[in-house]
Amino acid sequence: MEKAGKEPEGEVFCPRCGSHRLYYFVGGRGGWIYECKDCGYHGSVVIEDSEIAVELREKWKQSLKNKEENSEGQK
Predict the structure, then answer these.
(1) pTM, rounded to two decimals
(2) 13 within domain boundaries
(3) Residue 48's closest CA among 4, 7, 10, 5?
(4) Residue 27 is part of which domain span?
C-alpha cells in the first residue's frame, strides 16, 4: 500500500471514462485528488493499468453515444 501523499508513478487514467487527461489539483499529506478534463471526475482513485483504461474508455464512448441517441429520439 502506498503512503498517503505519494504521487503514483507512471501514467494514470480516470476510473470513470479511462481518459489519460487526468491532472492532480490537490496533493500532500492526505493524498492526491485528481480532476479529469474529459468527464469532470474529481477524486483520489485512479487507474494505473492502461488495458483497463482502454476498456473503460470504450464503455464511456458507448454510453455517450447512447445518451446522444436517446436525447435525439425524445425531440
Answers:
(1) 0.74
(2) no
(3) 10
(4) 22-73
